[in-house]
Amino acid sequence: MTCHDIDNLINSKPGNALPAGEAVAHLDTCDKCRALISVLNEEWKLAGLTAGQLERIQARIVETLKPVRPLAPASLFLFACAIIFLSIVAIGVMPSGMHGWAALGIGQRVAVFATLAASAVLLGVSMVGQMVPGSKYALVPAALPVGILTVLLILIAATFRPQADPGFVENGLTCLKNGLTYAIPGGLLFWLLVRRGAILFPKLIGAAVGGLAGLIGLSVLEINCQNLDVFHVLVWHGGVFVISSVAGALLGATVEYIDRLRSHEVS
Amino acid sequence: MFLVNSDGSLSQPTITPDPIPGVFDVVFSPDGAALIVQTGSVTTNASSVSSYLVEQGACYWKCSNPWRVRLLDGAHSQRTVCICLQYPQFLDLWFRYRRLGYCERSRYQQADPGAAAALVVMLSPQLYRFLDGKMGSRTDAEYMLQDVWLRVHRVRHAYRPSELLLQWVYAIARRVRVDNYRKRQRIASREIAAVVLPEAPTQKNEVKTDLPSFENLVASLPERQREVLTMLKVNEVSLEEVARATSSTVGAVKQKAHRAYQQLRNLLEQHQFAQAAPKGEAR
User: Fold this and answer.
1) Residue B58 sits in which domain range?
2) ipTM of the complex
3) What are the domain boundaries of chain A?
4) Distance CA B228, CA B240 (A)
């Protein structure tokens, strides 16, 4: 048994009920682990809360008590997200047609749209999870937008090839504008949805909302735009996702800042 | 031995023969060793727990500590009874393992003042323990506790009855703790020390024989490691619950805990080395 195994045993038992029996042999030989366990076994002093403090809290809560309707199930919010996502993509595709879809090969279609769909599902689940404090996450919400961006960039670099693109900036700016045109309303609708929950970290949820909105713009562009130059897709299509995510995080940070100012005024 | 009433007040235990449906009470058994949670029409007492359960046709299993019991009534609806044996911090345990807070939470959402008051009484001690510590003063902890409850109150609609209550509350408490930490950092960065107090003279011959306290050691850890360790070892929350409360994954929590233990080992080694040094010099 190693010190690392001792750590795992300590973690497996909440509180100070430490695994003296299971690790006796190791503890006999390891001074560090023995000292660690005796420190962790220390009796923790119980907090000294007075009845008066509790009564003050109770009074403040009870005086503003009104019935509330519990939040709808997560599946309903996910369904609403899917509807918003698909509706805006459909609206975005209609005016310009599916030139991009036609220009893509089957392999490219599968790779690009499967990744976009998976990314959208992951971000949607993370976003809806963040509406409820203490939700379970398979992936850390803070790392998710960055992870998705990395995967998208690698995928684009691997799927597309460099092509002659004389109007790199002009075409690119048009694509960026088109992408953001659909990402912004998507972001607003997602924000209206998530604000029904309890947002503990507006910056994080802002990045998730922005990222999901960015994926709407990116999806529209992948279906519309027939320019398959790898640099065009990387910079301008990928740029929609980056700008949306950063804008979402910045808006979230602004909300957080305003909340802080408000609470400062109250205190 | 006391009873937590639905209005949050405490009184002497009474085993209600026919409790009001939908209301549950927490009763300490006469010997103080067992906690019985009564829900709906389920009535039991500590001396005849097993026989009662057998009579009720309950299937029950021992799940380390506490015993978790599931009863099936005539209408096949499930009702859960929690019996905690030989555990003094019964309420902590009760809330950690059970979803029984569900009843109080649901009634709180329906604006029942008794349920709100009961929740404050039941959860505040362990929240206070989480907020207290080397991070700030006691006044800070009290202020944070109040802030936690105000936030809980503001977002009470965001609690889904099917979810566990404790991690929901802890996630909010953690946010308050982070906010308070940042606030103190901001204040500290703007404060100018008017008077520098002279250092207290140290007694060179004094040799400490005991290990440093857990509280002192934990205070020297980075904020994130300290938070994880406090929740795991002081608040006795499981890895899964820590992960949920900190918007993280179990793997990430394990890693932070491992780093914290490693750092504690190093600190303890340094301390032991420092203790041994004067002895060596004396020789």
Assistant:
1) 1-98
2) 0.79
3) 1-66, 74-266
4) 11
